[in-house]
Design a protein that fits this description.
single chain; 191 residues; Alpha-Beta Plaits; 5-stranded mixed β-sheet; 10 strands; 30% strand
Amino acid sequence: MKIEALSDNRISVELTQQDMTELDITYEEMDYSNIETRRVIWTLLDRARETLGRDIDPCGRMLIEAVPKPEGGCTINFTVLSGELRSTSYPGKLHFKKDSAYITFEFDSIDSLMSCAKSFTLSGRHMSNSELYSCEGLYRLLICPGAEPKTVKNFFSEYGSMCGEGNLQAEFTREHWELITEINAIEKLSH
């Protein structure tokens, strides 16, 4: 389990498949209306408090996003909403969102793809849920951006072109393009 504070109001918890087994939950079973999911969420917030030495303020509205990892496990992001988001965007105190939509980017050379991956990693960002495919000298990167789709779109659009958002384009790529790597593609390219 990896716990990190992304900002004052955001905590990210990466769970391996073994962590999920120990917590006795699967990604498919996660639903905040389920008492077991709530147990896991509060357990993770307690562990985050112990690890980071501070609380993420759960008194206001909180967005909880769960993103699956291709190798098993998932990343759960906790964000305390502030200002106008507290009052308008999310009903109730807690909003639980499962996110698995991919964004597909195409690159015309391996050099531009590797430059992109290196820049992304050097910027301090981490994206474990990424896959790489090739076809006729072109490269496609499938990314499940989690809590930061706008940031990811802006960053990767500087190096390649976005050719689809959502799982339909990702599935087309998986079916018709040649797989290079399906786990941690961005990190592998940056080394």
